[in-house]
Each structure stands twice: as structure tokens, then as C-alpha cells.
Amino acid sequence: MREMFAEVFASIRMNKQRSILAGVSTAWGIFMLIVLVGVGQGLIRGISSNYDYMSYNILHIMPGTTAMPFMGRQEGRKINLDDDDAAFLESQFPETVSKVIPMVNKEMQASKGRYSTVLQVWGVAPGYMNARYIQVKYGRDINDLDLQNHRKVCLLSTRLSSLLLSTKGSDALGQYVELGGVPFMVVGIYEPVRSFILVNDAFVPRPTATFLWEPSGHYDELCLFLDGLDTKEANGQFKLEMYDEMSKHKSFDNSDVAALNIEENMDFFLLVSGLLTTVSIAIWIIGLLALVSGIVGVGNIMFMSVKDRTFELGLRRVLGASDFSIMSLVLLEAIITMLIFGYVGMMAGIGVMRIVSVMTADMGSSAYNVFGSMDVEISMVLAANVVLVIGGLIAGWAPARQAIRMELTDALNS
Amino acid sequence: MIDFKGVHKTYPGAEPLHVLKGIDLHIDESELVSIMGASGSGKSTILNIMGIIDSYDEGEYHLAGHLIKGQSRMEQSRLRNELIGFIFQRYNLISFKNAMENVALPLYYRGVGQKERNSIAMNYLERVGLASHWDHLPSQLSGGQQQRVAIARALAMHPKIILADEPTGALDSTTTQDVMNLLKDVNKNEKLTMVIVTHELSIAEQTQRRIRLSDGRIIDDIRI
């Protein structure tokens, strides 16, 4: 094999101009593929990052008021949610609903010394913050012991921590703030999502919140964690079935959309991801078309090469070269040409994408990103390698076949 | 060694060209034979068929006991590589390989390792008096030197037969005689069968057997 490579490099050296011509079109093709896919991935990353705080697999059910009479009951009836409803949903849809987390959500005054503000307090269970992609920056999340012992502990946003306690970093941990007049110890500080979501909020253990502010045992929200709803149709079907079952369970008309308020992001997620997939496919196709022009270029040059080397290849066959060794020689030359120049194009593409990535890092605003990182992924580089080898095989195949199909007498007389 | 029985060859085309019209020819081991004839008489076609470079339409051709008919291309390559050494009028050296690499090339296709290949090639270059020029490219050698490299290449394979197509056609008279002396020496010492196609009487006169072709037929076959 080493000698075969030596033969190929000798041939490339012998025909430098021809090889460079073939290589430039390959380098350009792979450069365009890398740049297009890099820009496409940057666009996808940028747009996706605007929605990454959304938990697509969570469906929120909130209490409502009936707008239609049902079974002798008047409209205007409040439909409350409690532990029984959470257990009902989990048992009714075991395949789809993996977990139900009830929540209490109250607006109240928070104060510390002479500082005070109005904030939203969420009574939650462990795991909720993680599911909402809320990152605890300092301290810890709500845990099971907090729930069992009805502890008066809370997590504040970085902004609230700074506003109420005049501290930065982890200094607020262990200090107390009053939520609705009740002192709570700060055990964690979280980063608001995308800098503007959940900025004026605090999280406390749900049983504590229920005990203090909702002694009726009713919840302000049930969070359903869903599995396996991959299509718009499946999602729509689940919502219909769930609403129908809840209407029977809570005795209201299943067409009464005011009885419960449903919020979810799955349809939106499916729409966005579908669009981004289409953009991604389109960019790959355009990039590959650019590369095809490179492959055609190499193919043409390889045809010329075989034509130029008709005599030499014929002579090799006369001296005992098999069809396989002649084909290998031509194919290997095409593949090596594509790989060498393909790498040049690839490195140039990766370099350009790195520079553009740095330059566009501050584009857009904190509220909405246009481009994310355009750095090329390793999977992309590996895919480009595979494309180059396959491209070399395609580009060299027909000329290689031509090389072994030549009549030896014609080849020697050429 | 070489046995033609009623061999015909026609080149197809708008007007098919019947080049060989029933050639019967037997050449023994270690014979030094020349084939002469005017242009178009079929002498190069005979050589090409002998070298398994071209095919024939009718008759039979046996080479070293092998019937040359219907073999796969791979088998043909193997037979060429093992049995035949070629010498061409225009030397046919690969321009980007040096003298040693050119001589070693057929050995590469036989699967001989690089070290052994180079050693064999150097031995034969020494035999043809060009050991000191082993690293010269063909363009750095004279016509006579290139032909001697081609002869070394043909011999390096230890073939059973050497086929030479106008081996001195491109050389001046002094060099022609040098090359002929070398070929005769090889024939004598190596006991190799040697077939030389030539249009020069002075060359044919140096062989033991002279065959003359005309219009696709053997018209003279003289053993000296």
C-alpha cells in the first residue's frame, strides 16, 4: 500500500498543474459546504436559543370557571385542582404522563429591612426548577426534606437577592427575607432565564406555601410532564382525551373550554423544530451541490489525466499490472487529490467560521438571538471526510474504468 | 516455446482489414528469430499476439504450453508478467521514474518487495553497463542508454521469451550494434527465446532464423 501511495504521489508531482486545478475545485466545494452548513447551524443555534427556556414536554393545567351548565349545575362554577386530580391524571395516562407536579403561585410583598418589592412566589416540588431549565447559581434547589418538614426556605433570583439583601454572589445564602410577612431563609439563588424571565420571583416548598397561603389544599397549577408526544397529531389527540377525562372527573361539559385553562409549548416546538429541520436540509443540499461541482471538476481532470497517461497505463498493463492495480492507482489519485485539497478547503472553512462566529457573538440582543455559534461540529468534519472519500471514488470511477477498458495496442500506440 | 497454428487476425471496421491469413509458426526455446516485412505485412500484429497484447480470431496459439485463448484479463496479465519481456522501439520508459525504478516496475507487479526489487534492478543495470546511472531519469539518458534500461527491465523478470519490436529503430548505427551485441549475448548466455521484429536487413542478418512476411503470410523462413 505504501508503494501504491508513492506511485500516486509521484503521479501527482508529475502533473502538478493538473492536480492543483482539480484540487482547487474540490477545496472550493468543501469550503462552501462548511461555510453554508456552519451558517445554517449558527442560524439554527441562534433561533433555538431563543426558545431553549421553554419546556416543551410540560403541559400546565390551571383552574377555570365553567361557562356552560352541566348535569343541572349552573355555569360560573369554579373548577379547583387538588392532589386527587394530580393522582387521577397520573393513573389515567400512565404511558404519556410521567409525573404531575402541583404548584401554588401567589403574588405578594417581599421585604427585608427597609427594602420591599412585589414578587411572584411559586410553591414547587424538587425537580421543577430543573425541568424549567432554571439554573441554581449559588446554594441549592428545593429538596424532599424541605417538603417533609414544611421548611420556610426559599430561592431568590439574582436580581431580588441583590435588591432585597444588597449582596452579590453567595453572600445572601443563610439570610432571611419576609415573603407575605413570613420570614424565609434564602438557601439558593438562581439566574433568571434569558435574563428577563422569572426575574421577580421566589421559589418555596409547596407544602409550606399551601399551609401558609392556600389552606384549602387547592393548587394554582398542575404541571404535567409528558413523554412520547412527537407529532402535532399525537399532541392534539392527548389534549382532547385528557380534557375529556378531566371533564368526567370534575363534572363539567367536555366542550366547555373555560372550565380549565391549558397552556403548553409542544405545538410551537414542533412548528419551530420542523422549520429548522427544513432549513438544515436545504442548507445541506445547497452545500452538497457546491461540492458536486468539485467532484465533477476532479472527475473531468481525472478523465484528462487518464487520457494523458493512456500510454503509461497501457505500458503498466503490458508489464503485468492487473486491472485492479490500475483502477486502484487512478481511484487513489482521485481520492488523495480530493482529500488533500478537501482538507485545505475544510480548514479554510473552519477558520472562516471561527472568525465569523467571534464577530457575530454580540449580534442580536439579550431578548432575541439571530445567530448562535457557527463553529463546525466534529460530526460535520467527519461527514465531510466521508463525503470527500465517496466524492473521490465517484470522480475517479469512470476514468479508472476507462483506463482498464483501453485496448493495449491502442494504448501503446497513443 | 511459441506455436502458431493457422492464426488469422482481422481488424473490424467499415472495410475489415485481414492482417494475418493463416500463420503457422513454431519457435523453439532459446532461438533468436527475426521477423521482417514491409509496412502492413502483419509483423507487429504477430508480435502483439505473441505478447498477449492483442487477440486473434481463428487458429491456435500456444505459449510455453499455455493455449492463449479465452483467458481472463487477470490471467493474461499474469502470463505476460511471468513469461514475456518486452523491448520497444521507443524504449517505453516511464518518464518520472529513474532507471532503477523503471527496471523494477514489472517486479512490483509480481509482488516482489522493494528491497529485493531494487537489488535485482541494480544487478541488471550493472549487466547492461548502467549501474552508475541508476538514479537518472529517462530524459537524462541517451537513446542507447534508454534502450539498455529497457533491456534490463525485460530481463529483470527472468522471462522465457523476449519480444523486441524494432529495438534499434531509433538508434544510430554504432549504438544499434551495441544493443544488438547485448541482445545476442543475452540470447546466448541466458538461453532466452528472442523474437525481433525489424525492417533492417543488417539486424535480421545477425539472427539465427529469419522469417519474412508479406500480406499477412509467411513467405520465407530461413534458418542459418
Report on the structure:
- The complex is a heterodimer of chains A (414) and B (224).
- Chain A is 54% helix and 18% strand.
- With 414 residues, chain A is an alpha+beta fold.
- Chain A is elongated, with a radius of gyration of 33 Å.
- The model of chain A has no long low-confidence stretch (mean pLDDT 85).
- Chain B has a single domain (2-223), classed as P-loop containing nucleotide triphosphate hydrolases (Rossmann fold), CATH 3.40.50.300.
- The chains are: A alpha+beta (414), B alpha/beta (224).
- The interface between A and B is medium-sized, with 23 and 26 residues.
| Strand numbers in spatial order across the main sheet of chain B | 6-7-8-3-9-10
Structural class of chain A: alpha+beta
Strand content of chain B: 25-35%
Instruction: State the end-to-end CA separation of chain B.
Output: 19 Å
Biggest sheet of chain A, in brief? 6 strands, mixed, barrel
Keywords:
heterodimer; A: 414 residues; alpha+beta; six-stranded mixed β-barrel; 11 strands; elongated; B: 224 residues; alpha/beta; Rossmann fold; six-stranded mixed β-sheet; four-stranded antiparallel β-sheet; 7 helices; 10 strands; 36% helix
